[in-house]
Amino acid sequence: MSSHMARQMARVWDVGEQRVDCFVPPWVVSSSGLRAEVARGARKKVWTERPTEIEQLSRCSMSRVFALPVVRAASTREWGSGGKRTVVEDADGDDDARERGNGAEDTALAARGNGSGSSRRRARTASAQLVRDLDRMGHLPRGQGPQGELWQAWFEEMMSVVYSAEGESRRRLQDKEASALRGRDNAIEDLRAFAITPARILRLLVKFSKTSPLHAEAVQAFLIQTEFLARWVALAEATMLFANSITMTNVSYCLGSLLDSACMTELTARDGVLDPLLPSWCVAAYNNMYEFQPQGLINVMWVFHVAHIEPPPLIMERFWDAASRQTEWTPGELHLIFHHVGRRCMRMPPHARAVLGSQIVKLGPELGTGFTAFVLWGAARGGFHVDEVEGLAATVQSCFIRLHSRLRNDELARCIWAIGELGVRADTQLSAAIVSSFNTFSEKDKFSSRQLVRILTGVAQSELPVDSAHWSGVSFAESWSRALERSGVSGWGVEHVVEAIRAAAMLRISLSDQIQTLMIEKARTLLPHMDHPQLCALLIDLADLNMKPNSEFLRAWQDAERAAKRDASAAASAKADVGRAAKHYGIKLL
Fold it and tell me: Looking at per-residue confidence, does 340 or 87 come out higher?
């Protein structure tokens, strides 16, 4: 996190004597320099109603406890004047329904402004005009193309709207400060309602970009070539702390949609245009976490992913706590959360594994091929084990047996690896499904060398009887060896070499001379990049497989072993096995 972002997150708001229930999380004030800066900037004492969070802050050696203004989410979930409606943004939702205006709400909030009657009239006029502009822009231009007058006019009006909204937010913040001095909170209520506006502006761009690939290219060009994103960030930063969970769900979805491309990722990384917003967004996400529906939780993780930001531990702690409170998940939501878990290799806490594991058992019969592959893969990378959740082993087996003939090659590789990693032991029916599906694909030359490592590792961990498990007269071991001969090992890194030889040793596969030569030569080129435990494990597994590396390999291994920085604990635990393997190959260890 940049120093600018940290300073923005640690801002101290002067809220008078008003009680607050939101705080600056300790992970934003981790550096001593920042703590001193915050302490110097404090003008008066503020409170928090959460003793445990005061204790957390005190552990950061802060001289005082600071807080942000109240941002408790509104209890009623309304969007617009057309009756109550729960708005959850997702990729398959009804965009037209989302775009129906919040006109009555914005007009009403303008009437609640503080000050004289004339200032209230000015507020009402400005808000009403802004709402009318947004309503009009909801009718998207079609045809013509990026150079057409209609498209150009629409983008120009978008810039005008974001400038107007930014000015409106500054005025409302000034009203809030004046109101706090008089002990009134009407202006804060207005800011909570006005926080919908940035979400609505961004939703219009997302709706435009999803019209066609040409529309998407035009939106990306607009974001790159103009200062819209910087102006929108300034607008959202001023109001984000007052957003409720539904607004946060929509903002997170829109940010994820617009930033989920290589050029936008490069833009934000190079210019840091999102840096001022992310602190406020993180604090708002933290404080709304318990109000999110499953889709809202997923959207929050999506923003971290597309912005290439490691979620702070305090946010992840609350995220998993909130996820474990959700008892109703759809197959699509389950797929998305495990997709994020798998891609970031997040270790889930036990209480979250218990709840989401029960959802896998519940929704297993409804999962399709892609959903099954990512759910099992994410669960395995998230630290699941079938013994932790009742019925999980049976669900995993039944899902794979039901779908194995329809899986793609990458999905099959994920599933077989996950079956082993989750601790599923292959019975006769599961073994037959694994071997038949693998042999079918391998005959068509469909697997990459890395996928073959993943498959072999999963088979080894599931204790599949590779020599006795046949399909059409061909054993798994024979089929895997042929597939590796065709694919080669050029795509292997250190981990792939070590895992493949370890899995082969666990299964005690009889490898052909050609496969042995391929593996040993690839391992030799990677020896200088291995650490001491990997070097020891490699030599032990080669000896267990009774492989015969040449003298060049053995000299290279000995040189690498002497140069490697030894891990004392790992060396002590494997000393006997390494000595046995070294003696087998005639190597003298120092």
Answer: 340
